[in-house]
Amino acid sequence: MEAPPVTMMPVTGGTINMMEYLLQGSVLDHSLESLIHRLRGLCDNMEPETFVDHELVFLLKGQQASPFVLRARRSLDRAGAPWHLRYLGQPEMGDKNRHALVRNCVDIATSENLTDFLMEMGFRMDHEFVARGHLFRKGIMKIVVYKIFRILVPGNTDNTEALSLSYLVELSVVAPAGQDMVSDDMRNFAEQLKPLVHLEKIDPKRLM
Amino acid sequence: MSELGPVCRQGLDGVSQMPVAEGKSVQQTVELLTRKLEMLGAEKQGTFCVDCETYHTAASTLGSQGQAGKLMYVMHNSEYPLSCFALFENGPCLVADTNFDVLMVKLKGFFQSAKASKIETRGTRYQYCDFLVKVGTVTMGPSARGISVEVEYGPCVVASDCWSLLLEFLQSFLGSHTPGAPAVFGNRHDAVYSPADTMVQYMELFNKIRKQQQVPVAGIR
């Protein structure tokens, strides 16, 4: 069961509804270097940051038509970092002028026994993958360029194979509900990355 | 003892219930205890609160998962204001940040909160050398149901090294009401203690109090 549309409700039950604004695109492997080079120039000056994450997607099936999805993510290269649990709501539809995909998101840092706990709650793992890539920031915008690896043996993150010959590029902002000017800033930034990569609003439902 | 900024304080905690004194109310028994502590030389250091909400799997989820409805407890402890603890009896205890409460709102189609069973304990913190003692009144809704006593021994994090010391200290002001070693230590006496172990003890205490009969209200003074 999904909560009612939260775009118009900045606060629900005493907590601020956070929304994720998202633009996505991809580049072929051989174009990666030029994209990284441009991003290094456009983004905030910081040490180039790479990451290797393992994400598990859990489903809770009820009598409702669509199961409840939760994403559990952990770092494979940073020892001691907490696990990250993420809930993403359905994309808010409607405003064609909005340049980015907008959906409610809840981010929670948790202890390491997250997967055991989710199973105890009744969730079952649907799929998992490893994401390996680069992270950039520009103000509140986060740009991630990463490659998805399929895990061949469940639970074994050492034995993986790349899913494609390309890198996924995501430009995202997490901001309180109602801040639609954020998507304008994102669109402006995305313009500067053309023609290396075309970032657009991709509705996940249309892909299914 | 003064705290400089966010200090990760971790000691060993023993949580127990103090039975209400014969012929006295919950409030009077709490006052007796706190007076004993003040006579010992303990210093008042603010207040504390531990609360617990109970969730059960909604009927709609039960059939497909094929498991008996489990109870999930979501607890908060003012000693760890940025955290939320979620646990199952005899199951794992998840330590998360307070956004977990927001997630529970999203999950309300799958997990229902038994509003009437929200239980909490509130009271004063007393510092006595390396011991931190918290005496709280346990309430469910408007009624006082019992007394909780938590003692934290700051310098040590391994149960087997200091449980007897903690017990001796507890005896000095709880007298014959001192409990045995909590089940949470089990056979992990040499493991490092963590805040989740404290929350498990509170959960067990709250469950025990929930099952007890209501404490009679004090006679009019």
UniProtKB/TrEMBL annotation, chain A:
- The UniProt entry lists the main location of this chain as nucleus
Q: Does the keyword Nucleus apply?
A: yes
Q: Where in the cell is it found?
A: Nucleus
Instruction: Kindly indicate where the leader peptide sits in this chain.
Output: none
Q: Does the keyword Transferase apply?
A: no
Gene Ontology MF terms in the entry? transcription coregulator activity
The GO cellular component terms are: core mediator complex; mediator complex
A family per Pfam:
Med18
GO BP terms: namely:
regulation of transcription by RNA polymerase II; termination of RNA polymerase II transcription
Q: Which UniProt keywords apply?
A: Activator, Nucleus, Transcription, Transcription regulation
For this protein, the record's InterPro entries field holds: Mediator_Med18 (IPR019095)
Q: What this chain does, per the record? A: Component of the Mediator complex, a coactivator involved in the regulated transcription of nearly all RNA polymerase II-dependent genes. Mediator functions as a bridge to convey information from gene-specific regulatory proteins to the basal RNA polymerase II transcription machinery. Mediator is recruited to promoters by direct interactions with regulatory proteins and serves as a scaffold for the assembly of a functional preinitiation complex with RNA polymerase II and the general transcription factors.
Looking up PANTHER family in the UniProt record yields: MEDIATOR OF RNA POLYMERASE II TRANSCRIPTION SUBUNIT 18, MEDIATOR OF RNA POLYMERASE II TRANSCRIPTION, SUBUNIT 18
In which family does this protein belong, per the annotation? Belongs to the Mediator complex subunit 18 family.
Q: How does it assemble?
A: Component of the Mediator complex, which is composed of MED1, MED4, MED6, MED7, MED8, MED9, MED10, MED11, MED12, MED13, MED13L, MED14, MED15, MED16, MED17, MED18, MED19, MED20, MED21, MED22, MED23, MED24, MED25, MED26, MED27, MED29, MED30, MED31, CCNC, CDK8 and CDC2L6/CDK11. The MED12, MED13, CCNC and CDK8 subunits form a distinct module termed the CDK8 module. Mediator containing the CDK8 module is less active than Mediator lacking this module in supporting transcriptional activation.
Its name, as the record gives it, is Mediator of RNA polymerase II transcription subunit 18
* Species per Swiss-Prot/TrEMBL record: Bos mutus
TrEMBL record, chain B:
Q: Mind listing the UniProt keywords for this protein, alphabetically?
A: Activator, Nucleus, Transcription, Transcription regulation
Query: Where is this protein primarily located?
Result: nucleus
Q: Name one GO cellular component term.
A: mediator complex
Q: Which Pfam families match?
A: Med20
Name its GO BP terms in alphabetical order. Answer: regulation of transcription by RNA polymerase II
Single GO MF descriptor: transcription coactivator activity
**Entry keyword Transcription:** yes
Entry's localization field: Nucleus
- Domain of life from the UniProt record: Eukaryota
Give the multimer and partner information: Component of the Mediator complex, which is composed of MED1, MED4, MED6, MED7, MED8, MED9, MED10, MED11, MED12, MED13, MED13L, MED14, MED15, MED16, MED17, MED18, MED19, MED20, MED21, MED22, MED23, MED24, MED25, MED26, MED27, MED29, MED30, MED31, CCNC, CDK8 and CDC2L6/CDK11. The MED12, MED13, CCNC and CDK8 subunits form a distinct module termed the CDK8 module. Mediator containing the CDK8 module is less active than Mediator lacking this module in supporting transcriptional activation.
Q: Which family does it belong to?
A: Belongs to the Mediator complex subunit 20 family.
- Physiological role: Component of the Mediator complex, a coactivator involved in the regulated transcription of nearly all RNA polymerase II-dependent genes. Mediator functions as a bridge to convey information from gene-specific regulatory proteins to the basal RNA polymerase II transcription machinery. Mediator is recruited to promoters by direct interactions with regulatory proteins and serves as a scaffold for the assembly of a functional preinitiation complex with RNA polymerase II and the general transcription factors.
Q: Specify the protein name.
A: Mediator of RNA polymerase II transcription subunit 20
Report the source organism: Bos mutus
Q: List the taxonomic lineage.
A: Eukaryota, Metazoa, Chordata, Craniata, Vertebrata
